[in-house]
Amino acid sequence: MTTSSTSEPSAGKSSIGEASAAPSAAADGVRDTARDAEVVAVAPAPRASRLTWRRFRREPLGIAALAVLILLVLVAAAAPLLARYPSGYGEAVLSPPSGAHWFGTDSLGLDVFAEVVWGARQSLLVAASASLIAIVLGTLLAVLGAYFRTLDTVISVIVDLTLSLPVLPLMILVAALAGPSTLTIILVIAAFSWPEVTRVVRSQALAIVRLPYVDAARLMTSSPFWIIRRHVIPAVVPLILVSVVLTSSRAVLSAAGLAFLGLGDPNTWSWGRILYEAQQAGAMSTAWWLPLFPSLAIFLLVLASTLLSTAYNDARNPRRNG
């Protein structure tokens, strides 16, 4: 009797221990599962920029366009190493392309290849400077208008009014009044380029400021400029990149057009000035190589910029192509 009574409590304790061990094991399993889920949850996902670059590398036209733009930039940077600065007069006047002069010579006997190479430096300088000013001003007004709705009405009216004006005649008028110089060309082009940037960036910024995480940021801080810098501007960076490429190509076209009309810097070679000098010499039709090579350089830059922006948009938004 004593033995059985002793064994019964021990059996009871054993069953209680097993019962208490079961929930403990289950809890450990739950904790392990939660820990695994947490590890999976915090595992870093591929960054959007890396995914965009992977998709972009599968765009052959985009890669070719990027290579062309890089080549033009390298040519502009290495201009002193590629050709001497064209100045003075030469002996071979209006000579067609040959081994001595790859792109021929102009009415002054100057090497057209050297003019195109040094013209790339000036044209890209004007394009980059005007595009930078337009991008900074346009983006700033776009995000401020999107966040502060009281400013949005005023900015929208200014943008719509500027876009409705005839841009080229106004550029010609302002450049003629200010006088031909590189700084004048840069400021004139930038002054008429920022409204397009503002319109494009503003449409995206308006959608960003309505998102829940921006509303949560408003509760965390009272500084609207911190929210704009931390949340709004990073969200519109892809559009800014596209705007940089397109604005630069348009700036090259505008600068070439103004220089062709005689409103460019007369002391610096540019692609537009080559065309202007050929027209002034009356050699546009007789010396075919004079308009061909600078026009080809402008065409390649504009085409490469357009293809690059298209390929980047497709890589950033793959669902657009289905």
TrEMBL record:
Keyword Transmembrane helix found:
yes
For this UniProt record, give its keywords in alphabetical order, as a comma-separated list.
Answer: Cell membrane, Membrane, Transmembrane, Transmembrane helix, Transport
- Extract the Gene3D superfamilies matched here: MetI-like (1.10.3720.10)
Q: Which domain of life is it from?
A: Bacteria
Listed PROSITE patterns = ABC_TM1 (PS50928)
Q: Where in the cell is it found?
A: Cell membrane
Q: Which GO terms describe its cellular component?
A: plasma membrane
Ranges for domain ABC transmembrane type-1: 120-309
A single Gene Ontology biological process assigned to it is:
transmembrane transport
Instruction: Give me the ranges of the annotated region Disordered.
Output: 1-28
Composition bias of kind Polar residues appears in: 1-13
Transmembrane region(s): 60-79, 99-118, 125-148, 168-194, 232-261, 292-312
Q: Name one Pfam family in it.
A: BPD_transp_1
The protein's topology relative to the membrane is: Multi-pass membrane protein
Q: Which InterPro entries match?
A: BP-dependent_transpt_permease, MetI-like, MetI-like_sf, OppC_N
Family membership noted in the UniProt record = Belongs to the binding-protein-dependent transport system permease family.
What protein does this entry describe?
Peptide/nickel transport system permease protein
